[in-house]
């Protein structure tokens, strides 16, 4: 799956984000490269680069499950940041418009999920009225577990079989992110 440097985005093959066996593209595990994520309609959603493309794809799948349907990638044997950034910029330019994940939705693609933004009105009221920090932490963990369960259900509906494990320590702060 090693590709020539300078390949156009259009010239790269598209791989199913989740294959028929429910796995992400294992060939990208531990590989350094640039990748492009597409939705069901093959509309470009995000372009990034990573030291472990598969790990990054897992993070994006958890954060944006409905937008992660197809992926294209260019793996680099001798990577340098300048080259990776140049490829990413070229792919975005080739697309004609900057994908939402590289502009207005950048944080939702790249930062841990903030469960405070997904609290119900009842959870927000309970959190605001909490008598102490320990009670707030407990509520954040409960909310994080609820959001985690919703995400895992979405992934199950797509037959994702790849192991997804969230970092339990981050739940106390109201954030969801995968365990490294």
Automatic annotation (TrEMBL):
Annotated source species: Oscillatoriales cyanobacterium SpSt-418
InterPro entries to which the protein is assigned, alphabetical: CAXIP1-like_GIY-YIG_dom
Identification of the protein by name: GIY-YIG nuclease family protein
Superkingdom as given in the UniProt entry: Bacteria
């Amino acid at each position: 799956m090693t590709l020539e440097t300078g390949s156009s985005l259009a010239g790269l093959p598209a791989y199913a984000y989740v294959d028929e066996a429910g796995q992400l593209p294992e060939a990208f595990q531990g590989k350094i490269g640039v990748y492009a994520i597409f939705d069901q309609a093959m509309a470009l959603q995000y372009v990034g680069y990573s030291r472990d493309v598969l790990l990054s794809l897992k993070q994006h799948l958890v954060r944006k499950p409905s937008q992660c349907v197809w992926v294209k990638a260019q793996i680099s044997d001798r990577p340098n940041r300048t080259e990776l950034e140049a490829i990413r910029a070229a792919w975005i330019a080739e697309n004609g418009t900057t994908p939402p994940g590289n502009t207005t939705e950048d944080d939702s693609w790249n930062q841990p999920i903030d469960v405070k933004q997904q609290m119900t009105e009842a959870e927000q009221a309970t959190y605001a009225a909490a008598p102490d920090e320990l009670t707030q932490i407990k509520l954040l963990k409960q909310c994080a577990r609820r959001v985690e369960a919703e995400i895992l259900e979405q992934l199950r509906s797509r037959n994702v079989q790849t192991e997804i494990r969230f970092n339990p320590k981050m739940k106390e702060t109201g954030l969801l992110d995968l365990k490294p």
